């Protein structure tokens, strides 16, 4: 190739830089005691059990999974609202896994959260102005010019800056969620954890808020961890997707890979279970994989692969060996090709690999 | 299968075969007087539910979709609700009917499955007893027979070990199992109409699929009419036969469910479909409907949707601002009705889709 | 369940012990000198004071005094008074400084009077309060509701001792409609009739808060989804209210009830004083005046035990009402 670096390779070089967030083998166990007959038994809820991922500036990672899979716990661990039992969280090269509250000050500024419920997450007794200026004061930002900044924020999220003295109850659900977003943005964070940010909103409002988040992400170059159960919303918003089941990531990769060629049976079941609007346009409904039963208890998860109790592919090995989260393609391609292909990992002994995807990538000798 | 203890005098023919109208709602209005004024939750709503078919009532929160069906079972406090119009359930007029009538038709002719099975089941009573209670209320049988019936129903809705499960409390059930139990409770007296109010909204997606499949299977088996109240258009596409789209207490479009979703002819329906992420998955921006729904205390004059409508400029004059559009057949589409002033709604919306 | 109760009992014992130690320390930390209080004013001299101090055992170090007291609770102890040695069997609460009577006798002969008063009052406030509360909830917004809530608020706003004094004065003393307090020795009939006036006023006054608790709890329950489900079954409204509404509405009331009964058992002091009921509250008041440490310690012990036991009873009762609550 020529000496002139293309935009693509520059982007690749940037993304190869130091990641914003590195999560390694993260665990969160909740110990509790239970009375069984006359004995007290110590038990543990393994809410998050060894997950790893990295996130770079401007990237968006979607965490999907059903209730109890550990996606919300993960977001609390990453923001250090909760302390991990084991593993590490490294933010901008700094290990924040076990920092004390007073040491977390800068992290509290760089990492912000947007919550699900726009009703309970805003203090009803405070005006919007006070809700939005508090984080500024706490972090000593825009001293003396807080009001101007608050108005700027309101404008940024599409609210009337004149409403600075109103109370949360005077706003609709969608507007409140905008206030929640403005609050998160007030301190100019680098990473935003959005925990089901649109699931409490109506469809038409949901689209408005999604658009706002997308616009802000692009304008401010924010990284997002987007926790959601709505697969359509995640597909629209995220670049990378991690599918979680019982405290583990079972599949991880580029959005396109996950949605178009899922390799893990659970991902396949999850995607096939979501009803499809296109059925109305005469497109035949996809073959629905019917999962039997419920998610097992995280107190005593199944041995080996955690999904095996509901999996139609399960064999003896699934009970004996835990499948690692790994790529299913034998890696004969170049580093460059692998990067272009995008990362795609899954944790299954019998993954469904669509070989066509590999063939699309021209093999290149390793440089 | 069931013997209704008290025969109810009927004013019209009972629905007996597939396609017969079980529920005929005509010009129904429901309003709640409050200190701030009259909340017009439902205005002039009309629809029919037919045996063997699923009618979807679709709308956002506050559109009145649940309020109208609660009126069918008389679940609004009569002292604090103004109901006018007509609700005929299997020939029985229910608007203005005494509590005794409602008591007889509840569970026997129409039953309801609610959104959150966690709060809809009594936390202090055993599942089996809760189901048996509904059977006992309408059948002259012993408690033992009713409890046996409850176990049969739990078995029917796919709860393993129904005998043991009947003796458990709701908190010992998972979310999906609770919703199955709710459905068992709804069907215990073999009603002709099952109203499912957001039955899967509180459930995970794999469980949602199980529950929707179950409702479909049971409908085929019992041949009853189902009203599915939901905000999820994808669920409608996969399960409903007919649809009524509601906005701010009024129906705005009705017709065949799949046809409406494939080719909406009301700007609101069109806007809802456009705003779905699945509709524009590779676009950076979703096509949102601007603004937010109006207050039911103070509905805008004319068409309630006009403040949010992108097409009002294409209607000559100021009809959208001043005149409430009446139901009319959509020009160019069979079996479709809308409340909209657009002269050529189909063409207008198609053109817009092409432009975007 | 059994382990739960055993654990709770162990916890209860430590709570009671802590209460005893702190009462003991507070007593001596204060400006109290029981010997001075007992020393007859006219003939008091240092020698006599010392003698009294010694006879009360107050000359020993605090820790030893407490250990002896504590030992008495479990194995009994011997007292030497005026040359005689008296054995006080476990659980020995000691002897009153002022009356030289056994505290056990002093308190346990009076405690039943307090129990009878408290329980009679409880019957009154539960029946009246809960009934009115339920009527108000069911008839919400009607004149009946407003009447009940209005009158209970008015009644509850009057200071209790004023009401109690008025009742003791007019119907009991002046008009003779209600009989005066009579000890049990006067016969069972007169005894219970005499309890009627104090129990009624105490019960009615307490019932005002129960009316409000019950109304709120019932209204909250009636707005629950499961009540809507019950209605949608086609069962009579009465059944909905009683079988589905009432029990759920009562579960929070049980907690308050348990604590209120415990409070009454340890302190119907004003009522006892005004109506002359010879109960434990009145005796404790007298003990405080006389700086009578053993009696104070005894009533604190009984009070702590009552509170702890009622808490346990409430928790167990709760687990029977609400199947979601598991004792652990």
UniProtKB/TrEMBL annotation, chain A:
One MF annotation (Gene Ontology) recorded for this entry: ATP binding
- Signal peptide positions are none
Give the keywords, sorted: ATP-binding, Nucleotide-binding, Transport
**Which CDD domains does its entry note?**
ABC_NikE_OppD_transporters
Q: Where is the ABC transporter domain?
A: 21-271
Please provide the Gene Ontology terms (biological process) for this protein: peptide transport; transmembrane transport
Pfam families, per this entry?
ABC_tran (PF00005), oligo_HPY (PF08352)
Check the record and name the InterPro entries matching this protein. Answer: AAA+_ATPase (IPR003593), ABC_transp_ATP-bind (IPR050319), ABC_transporter-like_ATP-bd (IPR003439), ABC_transporter-like_CS (IPR017871), Oligopep_ABC_C (IPR013563), P-loop_NTPase (IPR027417)
Stated family: Belongs to the ABC transporter superfamily.
Question: What's the protein called, per UniProt?
Answer: Peptide/nickel transport system ATP-binding protein
TrEMBL record, chain B:
A single GO molecular-function term is:
ATP binding
Q: Which InterPro entries match?
A: AAA+_ATPase, ABC_Ni/Peptide_Import, ABC_transporter-like_ATP-bd, ABC_transporter-like_CS, Oligopep_ABC_C, P-loop_NTPase
Arranged from A to Z, the UniProt key words for this protein are: ATP-binding, Cell membrane, Membrane, Nucleotide-binding, Transport
**Keyword Transport carried by entry:** yes
Record bears the keyword Kinase: no
Q: How does it sit in the membrane?
A: Peripheral membrane protein
The family database entries (Pfam families) matched by this protein are listed as:
ABC_tran (PF00005), oligo_HPY (PF08352)
GO biological process, any: peptide transport
Q: Gene Ontology terms, cellular component aspect?
A: plasma membrane
PROSITE patterns noted in UniProt: ABC_TRANSPORTER_1 (PS00211), ABC_TRANSPORTER_2 (PS50893)
Please give the superkingdom of this protein's source. Bacteria
Which ranges carry the ABC transporter domain? 23-273
The family assignment reads:
Belongs to the ABC transporter superfamily.
Q: NCBIfam families recorded for this chain?
A: oligo_HPY
Return the protein name: Peptide/nickel transport system ATP-binding protein
**Which organism is this entry from?**
Humibacillus xanthopallidus
From TrEMBL, chain C:
Instruction: Output the SUPFAM superfamilies linked to this UniProt entry.
Output: MetI-like
Q: Which UniProt keywords apply?
A: Cell membrane, Membrane, Transmembrane, Transmembrane helix, Transport
Q: Which GO terms describe its biological process?
A: transmembrane transport
Bilayer-crossing residues are 115-138, 158-178, 184-205, 253-275, 295-321
Q: Where is the ABC transmembrane type-1 domain?
A: 111-318
Similarity annotation:
Belongs to the binding-protein-dependent transport system permease family.
Q: Which PANTHER family match?
A: INNER MEMBRANE ABC TRANSPORTER, OLIGOPEPTIDE TRANSPORT SYSTEM PERMEASE PROTEIN APPB
Name-wise, this protein is Peptide/nickel transport system permease protein
- The species is Humibacillus xanthopallidus
